[in-house]
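Below is just one:
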Amino acid sequence: MTLIDDARAVRENAHAPYSNFKVGAAVQTASGAVYVGCNVENVAYPEGTCAEAGAIAAMCAAGEREIVAVAVIADSPQPVTPCGGCRQKLAEFAKGDAVVTMATTDGLTEVTSVGQLLPGQFDADYMVRT
């Protein structure tokens, strides 16, 4: 099973009654473990939480902290990218060269890296005075 397969499977569990835009994500850690997440909308927060954020939360809950690969999939005309907030979250746990595979349910894919998705990312170096 690939990361896209994992993301595709969890996408079916998304709760998207307002947008009907289901997204699934999977992250693989340095240990080889895979964590998945899907978007969840609710009446108070109709834009919902993102699939990548859910996968990262599951990863952290399991005590893992280093992402080496990411997959995200949606039923869209072109491969869906992680939102800005999720790009920052991914940058918190992944090196710039971590592979990000974005896909559509029709089979289109695009591969990039965390660094390409978020150039100039904010990190802890900004908080250290020398």
Observations:
- The radius of gyration is 14 Å.
- The mean pLDDT is 93.
- The longest strand covers residues 94-104.
- The CA atoms of residues 10 and 92 lie 23 Å apart.
